[in-house]
Amino acid sequence: MRRPIEIRKAHYPGRAPIDSYGNGGFRFADMSHRGSLLMLPSGIYGWDLVEGDPLTQDAFQRVFEEAADIEVMLVGTGREIRPLPADLKAMFRENGISSDPMSTGAAVRTYNIMLAESRAVAAAFIVV
């Protein structure tokens, strides 16, 4: 008897640069992912946000759980730059994290450079 396919929350247990993005997804580590991503010290996670969704503290909860290992948080807000809400920016500051919103493309490029420099960087990429 065959076992049914088990669908799990997307997670890649490591750090990897983004090889390409667009058309609703990202390519990294010889894999592809459709949807948004959180790039954290503990790994790469699927993220349920889409362009235009509110940027709330709850959406970044996993980031705050790993705050001790993060100095810079890049937020790719989609095609256009969106400012972070004041309460979210304050929460990043309280956790010792410098936050920087930018378009997803700019965030991907910046993340790849900072990752190559072994910086304590994390990123949230809203899919484009």
Describe the fold and architecture.
The chain contains three helices and nine strands. The chain has 128 residues and is an alpha+beta fold. It has one domain: Hypothetical Protein Mth938, Chain: A (3-Layer(aba) Sandwich). A six-stranded mixed beta sheet has the order 1-6-5-9-7-8. A three-stranded antiparallel beta sheet has the order 2-3-4, with no helix packed on it. A hairpin with a 2-residue loop joins strand 3 and strand 4 (31-34). The longest helix is centred in the last third of the chain and has 13 residues, at 104-116. The chain is globular. This is Mth938-like domain-containing protein.
Attribute tags:
alpha+beta, Hypothetical Protein Mth938, Chain: A, three-stranded antiparallel beta sheet, 3 helices, 9 strands, globular, MTH938-like_sf, Mth938-like domain-containing protein, NDUFAF3/AAMDC
